[in-house]
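Translate sequence into structure tokens.
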Amino acid sequence: MKSEFTLALNQICSERNLPKEIITQVLESALATSYRKNANIMNSQHVAVKVDIDSGDTRVFVEKEVVDSVMDERTEVSLEEARLANPEAQIGDCVMVDVTPKDFDRIAAQNVKQMIVQKLREAERDFQYNTFAEREGEIVHGIVHNITPTGVVLNLGRAEGILLRKEQIPGERIELQQRMRAYVTEVKRSNRGPQIMLSRAHKNMLRRLLEIEVPEIGKGQVEIKSIAREPGSRSKVAVAALQAGIDPVGACVGQRGARIQSIVNELNGEKIDVIEWSDDPAAYITKSLGPAKVLAVHPNQDAKTKSATVIVPDDQLSLAIGREGQNARLAAKLTGWHIDIKSGSEALSEALVKIAEDEKLQQWIGADIVQAVPTARELLVRQRAMPAPLNPEEFLMVKRIVDALHKYATLQESLSTSAEQASAQRSAADAERQDARQAALAQIPRAAYAMPVEKLELSARVLQHITSAGILSVGDLMERRLSGDEGLLSIEGIGAKALSEIKLAMDKVLGTFAPSHAPTQAAPGESTTAIRDINQAETATHAMPATAKAAPMASGIAIDGAARADTATAVASSQPANAVEPITDDDGRSPQEIFLEAMAEDSDEQGAPSSTHGARKKADKDKGKKGARDRVLIYDEELGRTVVQRLRKPGREGFIDDLEEE
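Result follows.
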């Protein structure tokens, strides 16, 4: 037979509508607190109470330390007693010892009554909050308990929900003790229990009602894509089938509209339009504007704005817009597109005007549409006089005309955008090439603009062609060369032979400029031949030994009249492998050969015969030239090449005579 304590606990569970586990936790916590207070237990000790509701047995356990000799029974226990609770207990361990006093049930009931009541209230509030927090976003059933100016209080069983006036369906009449369903929007904690906020105007309430009434939605065969709702007036729902062979609209409407009618009755007669969702914007917008018929839908090319122009017949214009724009507004909310509705007469009038003014448009749309223009004009006059429904032929004709105009406008816009992009790309490329050319021009030495082209020692014919083109300095010629061979060949009269002559002459004068200029970089897309030639010439000049640039080329001929050395060996050793090709004399001899000839003639005069040198000497005399023994080779920094100078007789001012070019 159960004890009175057990019966009381069972009654509490029944009255409070709480599970036994929560009641057990409340009792154990309250009894442990009461025992700690009455038995004067230290705060550091752990106290536990075990309550068996079925048998009514209550046991109290206190944590004590195992010692050899017990000095304080409240905190210590002997080893023998400790091993009754825990056979493996050792000295120094802490064990839970059963210290349940006699008649503990009666004593506990008297001492912890108020504490148990308080804890039960807290447990009841927590249980209710957790229960309704899990149902947030769901539909609950309730009975109208109270009606106030701010809202309605619904009795939800062990809790109450608040339905504010703004969350009620407009025009709905609510009476006391009326049973209704509501959507749980939010659950809050409060000192008086959970505060449950309800709504009947939320669009998700329509979603939950559809899930309840339509089994295909609950099974995952039909999906609700979007909902647009104006409570108490009208709603639109877009659904899609996730399984082949299922009609999503028919599943939601039900046989003879039975399923959708029950939802309409629950929502106080609210009209509900169910349409099939489509990934094609034109088809989706057309269905969303139902029951109005649509002539054409022209989405905007800019996907970011998501706007579309919808053309409807004149007799369907008011139906498409709806009362106070409701139908168009709900369609825009449902699809997420900004919809601009235009009448068929207005669209047809604009199309006919553009077709008449644009001949290219007439050629593009084709002869069949052009031939239908007179008929379309007559139809436009009739529609403006008295709007009437279009027959199938007229409907198709107007649709073809406005669609053709939209396609043409879209094509022109696309071509214009492509042309603008191409122009922008060309401008960017031209600017980049111009910057690169300016950078290349900046690398041309300033001294080159002060050097006339005559210094290049070009032939008279080539020089005349260059000067006729307005090129007066070496710097101007370098600018032409930045464009490659084409820049030089563009000069009138300059051919392949003259081009080689100009390039060779320019390569020779490049060494006269300071080598501090950085190598020129070619612009993207331009010919790099000229710049590569310039860089190679500057590299050759940099590689030339300092003695070859600053000292006379005849290394071994002293200005002060020192003995001559083997000039041929000195000249050959002072020229690097990549040096600029030396200039030759008019008869094909280089300055080095002239110098060697002069040395040979000097040897002949001293008694060393040489048939070859003698022949050369005889040939020189035949030409009226002087001997080469009074000539030396030096490097002229101004000209940038090796030249021959004549020696004066000893005793004159200066040992070397004026420059004589061979």
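Note: Residues 392-442 form the longest helix (51 residues).
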